[in-house]
Design a protein that fits this description.
This protein is α+β, with helices and mostly antiparallel strands. The protein has a 4-stranded antiparallel beta sheet with strand order 1-2-7-6, with no helix packed on it. Strands 3-4-5 form a 3-stranded antiparallel beta sheet, with no helix packed on it. The model has no long low-confidence stretch (mean pLDDT about 80).
């Protein structure tokens, strides 16, 4: 069976191998690799709005930011780094500092001053009202009458 090539899965495998090598080393390294997994996005139209859903699990609303510049939506943020407590003897430590940054060109002009955002259960939902100039308007076609 053929499997579709996923470069991010390969990067994740490489990352785990690097972390394993450092974990097995007799020397202690504080290796902080940011999460390289892309943030999945859905962008769709719903009535007069563009809707954007972004999956950002494990973060708090205050750790997430979104802004619109022209026709580009920029979603970014980072989790707070949890300090490793010396009195704990970790056998496995997979909770990591996470930083993400994603930009996407919007398919229509939006009114950013009227935009709203809701963050619930690790999903950021943006409601971006479309500008009048980007809404579809039917243009009636007439026939020129001579005479």
């Amino acid at each position: 069976m053929l499997a579709r090539f996923d470069p991010f899965r390969e990067i994740g495998t490489l990352r785990r191998e690097i972390e394993r090598l450092f974990d097995e080393s007799p020397f202690r390294y504080d290796l902080e690799l940011p999460d390289l997994t892309p943030m999945p996005l859905d962008v769709y139209e719903e009535g007069p709005n563009l809707m954007v859903k972004a999956s950002i699990p494990g973060l708090k609303p205050e750790e997430v930011q979104a802004e619109v510049r022209g026709d580009v939506l920029h979603i970014f943020g980072e989790s707070k780094k949890e300090e490793e407590k010396k009195e704990r003897n970790y056998h496995l430590r997979e909770h990591r500092y996470t930083r993400f940054d994603r930009s996407v060109t919007l398919p229509a002009e939006v009114l950013s001053e009227k935009a709203s955002a809701l963050f619930e259960n690790g999903v950021l939902t943006l409601t971006l009202p479309k500008a009048e100039t980007s809404k579809t308007r039917q243009i009636p076609v007439k026939t020129l009458v001579k005479g």
